[in-house]
Amino acid sequence: MPHRTGLPHRPEQVSEDVCAASELLEVLWGRGQEAAARGVVSPSQLRALLVIEQQEGSNLRSLGEALGSRAPSVSRLCDRMEAMGLVQRDPSPTSRREVELRLTLQGRELLEEYRAIRTRELTAVLERMQPSDVAALAVGLAAFRSAASQRLTGERSTAGRIRDDVADSA
């Protein structure tokens, strides 16, 4: 990944650097994931666990929207995670046709273990950087996280408005 100097940074250039860094993160996390004592879950299962953790009690439709997946795929994914003891499905108190998704204790422990492994891997990398670079990275990542959260929140609210409009016209 080439280090670019000089301002201003074009978003396309920075996007390329972020993509390259994320690929390295995938490699580091993959190494750590294989070291997990509780076993390896697929990347799609890990994403689903993270979404369920953030949206505890959500249903299959909500999970599918968050993952960008269709209902049959999400249902099979949840079947596998439930069989592994990571997720439980509970009847919804508001609708007999829906189930709520929750992490089991085993699912929570798995996420904690993965986070600890990832943190060790990232700490080893950050220790190789200059303190001023670590500080700049921290500021940049906070801003990135905020912007990404706003984008995802905006997409969810836009999707909800579109769905409401369709329901109103039916």
Fraction of helical residues: 55-70%
For the biggest sheet, the summary is: 2 strands, antiparallel
Can you tell me the overall shape?
globular
- % residues in beta strands: 5-15%
The largest beta-sheet arranges its strands as 1-2
From the alpha carbons, calculate the radius of gyration and give it in angstroms.
19 Å
Q: What is the N-to-C order of secondary-structure elements (H for helix, E for strand)? A: HHHHEEHH
Pick out the low-confidence regions.
Answer: 160-170
Average predicted local confidence, pLDDT: 82
Output the number of helix runs: 6
Terminal CA distance: 51 Å
The helix/strand class is: mainly alpha
Describe the structure.
With 170 residues, the protein is mainly α. Helix content is 69%, strand content 6%. It has 6 helices and 2 strands. A two-stranded antiparallel sheet has the order 1-2. Strand 1 and strand 2 form a beta hairpin. Helix 1 packs across helix 5 (105-126). The longest helix is centred in the last third of the chain and has 39 residues, at 131-169. It is globular. Mean pLDDT is 82; it is low at 160-170.
